[in-house]
């Protein structure tokens, strides 16, 4: 893997987060050059090592999800519920810029290593906590998962087809948009602020909060009209014939997203049916009639027969890619959005690359996703722990 000088070179992160939102955030930081130390419990480790299908070669096996979320990190095992484990955290923080965690609010405060205990001892520390509902408010203590956050944020009620029930998305909207990316933005802003003030701060990230901005367009309409939007019957959710999914003759699906009239005209010109737009009344009845006509047109040809129009740059028309097709997509390959990294046991592993492209300080892929506790000795030695101290920590089951 090529070594580069990323924009966060010299920044050190202690990552206590697990599963998806926090680890993806720290991977973005690591790709940008930060040194990320991933802290796992000695008895179990990050649950993504166990909860998903594993990739194996010989006697070695690792979770596919873990491989997607943990490159460029060093893994150490520390039991933060033990006094000795918390002492390890405190000593490591002397040299860290950022602490990232994803526990319920106040969990680390109760253990004596929360922001309230750390802010005076480490005034430059940026402490980012990702939780479902944030560190304050009525839902603060509530457990939850992605679907709960988007339900309470108002997104889930709007997701689905007209006349049908709400549909849970097959992707983690609040976890990634509300958690990962909101935390990443907050951390980078706090780093910038620290350059001016010399002080760190607490970055409180709520996955529900981060999901609510998805309502921006719909809320604008609601404020103007006082009408609740109807699921599956909004301009961008199925009302318009030029912005919806259509089924092909062979049971596959295509997406027409020609929202502007000029793009819709371009698409219709490709199929020699410009009359559809010309004769379409701009009302619900007109939209419904045009949709019905287009449904029949799309069902008259197979997916392969429609595919040539995907290449027209002004049609806003595309197929629905499978995961296998995404991994082979030439555009994504050219941009490094999909690539392979070298794993010492598994060989070349396809991964999602960094979405961040810098002209002067490019991201880099330096370390394969680590084995659990792979770097415990090296990290603790670099922090000044002696062999005797580490042996005592092992006997006490702190590492």
Report a brief summary of the structure.
This protein is α/β, with parallel strands linked by helices and 399 residues long.
Q: How many angstroms separate the termini?
A: 30 Å
Q: Helix and strand string, N-terminal first?
A: EHEEEHEHEHHEHHEHHEEHHHHEHHEEHH
Average predicted local confidence, pLDDT? 97
The gyration radius over C-alpha positions equals 25 Å
Under the CATH scheme, which class of the largest domain?
Alpha Beta
- The helix tally amounts to 17
CATH homologous superfamily classification of the largest domain: Crotonobetainyl-coa:carnitine coa-transferase, domain 1
Strand content: 15-25%
Keywords:
16% strand; alpha/beta; Rossmann fold; elongated; 399 residues
Describe it:
The protein has helices at 21-31, 64-69, 83-93, 107-111, 115-118, 146-152, 173-197, 207-211, 216-225, 261-270, 275-278, 284-298, 303-310, 323-328, 330-335, 376-382, 387-395, and strands at residues 12-15, 35-40, 54-57, 60-63, 73-77, 98-101, 126-131, 202-206, 243-247, 253-257, 317-319, 338-343, 347-352. The chain is α/β, with parallel strands linked by helices and 399 residues long. The strands form 4 sheets. The chain has a 6-stranded parallel sheet, with helices on both faces. Helix 1 packs across helix 7 (173-197). The mean pLDDT is 97.
